[in-house]
Amino acid sequence: MSKEKPEVSRHKFLKTGAVTAGAAAATVAMPNVSRAQTVTLKMQGSWAPADPWNGFAEDYITRVTEMAGGRLKIDYLVSGAVVAYNRVQDAVHGGVLDAAHPVPVYWYGKNKSASLFGSGPINGCNAEQTLG
Questions:
Q1: Are residues 106 and 46 in contact, defined by beta-carbon separation less than 8 angstroms?
Q2: Shortest CA distance to 43 belongs to which of 78, 16, 85?
Q3: Which has the least CB within 10 A, 11, 45, 77, 93?
Q4: pLDDT tens digits, the chain, 132 residues: what are they?
């Protein structure tokens, strides 16, 4: 008794593979995207309204809002609105604020190495050159 092996056709193999791949792609191509409500974060800067760093914070907020497609809103507050300029880190840590926009040199009291990343003359530039 001889059993004949079915003939393998390249065309049939590729056609079956294409149908299977198409079904898998259709399943993966339609991900469930969350349409969550807008999230609002409260962020305070360490800057007065006329300070150039305040402008940087506002530019950052504009960019984040655009990238998030309006699903993330940052309620930006200037220095002193909730806490003092040098206490924003503590306010974030304590849950009073969601975010802060200070410079690391204000953390000097917490860790002396923060001054290495602050606004001091560590890189040979004056304040205007550092801002540039």
A1: yes
A2: 78
A3: 11
A4: 566 666 667 667 666 666 666 665 555 555 555 666 889 999 999 999 999 889 989 999 999 999 998 889 999 999 999 999 888 989 999 999 999 988 877 777 777 777 666 655 556 666 666 655
- What ranges make up the beta strands (E) of 1-132? 39-45, 72-77, 99-101
Q: With a threshold of 0.70, does the pTM exceed it?
A: no
Q: Which domains does the chain have, with CATH numbers?
A: 39-131 (3.40.190.170)
Among left, alpha and beta (phi > 0; psi -120 to 50; other), residue 118 is beta
Question: Strand order of the sheet with strand 99-101?
Answer: 72-77, 39-45, 99-101
SS3 130: helix
